Amino acid sequence: MKIWAHRGCSQSFPENTMTAFSKAVEIPGLTGIELDIQMTKDGEIVVIHDERVDRTTDGIGYVKDFTYRQLRQLIIDAGEEKKEKIPSIQEVLDFLRDKMAQGMLLNIELKNSIIPYEGMEDKILDLIGQRCLLKEVIFSSFYVRSLERIRKRESAVSVGVLDTNVSDCFYKKNGAFDGEDVSVALHPFWKRMDMSRNELKGQTVRAWFSGHLYPELPTGKKLDLGQLECYGITDVFLNEPEVYLS
Question: Which entry of 5, 6, 74, 242 is annotated as an active-site residue?
């Protein structure tokens, strides 16, 4: 089972922050880090999950309505009087570059299924390409047309089709790409594996989880990864990867 840090180490530290990412890169055996991108009013790509800033910062409103400078003035409470800021994707890429050159992967989820950020695909491809990291990145989205745009420009990059049911991921993959293409992965919710392991044979299935993000208390429980493998899951995006790999 391959383990990814979901939004960094997001159980113990604020999600999608430099601290959450810096803690993740210290974990031995971690396959990669998953993060989310949105776009500002002035076209900068920033790392944040929600379309709005309300849940994770002291601000109110949509990311798209802030300039990058305005977003950087918002505060993310990291506890014990520590403060974080919303990072730009460039800041994160520059921080992770050496680790990625050593084999660590990065899953970038384009959050464009609700707000269709114009030009997002070209912008992120340019930034990744400038750093010669296209082979180390998986691009994922609930909006499969966005993934089609990415593959049209860069046919060799890896992508992941997001949805809730694995059958819906499979259907979207077959509709947009070659169903046998192993560089196109399925990214379902872990509890919605409505296809058999045999039906998923040969597919990369990266399952995502929800809940128990910072500052919630840890559950004290561990998933049975062997059981997940029986469902056909090959990778997991976990909020607390350090518990499984330390």
Answer: 6
Query: Would you call 187 a catalytic residue per the annotation?
Result: no
Catalytic option among 49, 149, 151, 173: 49
Q: What is the pLDDT of residues 123-141, one digit of tens each?
A: 999 999 999 999 999 999 9
pLDDT of 45-93, one tens digit each? 999 999 999 999 999 999 999 999 999 999 999 988 899 999 999 999 9
- CA–chain centroid gap for 186, Å, is 13
Q: Quick check: is 6 catalytic?
A: yes
Dmax of the chain from CA atoms? 51
Question: Does the pTM of the predicted model rise above 0.85?
Answer: yes
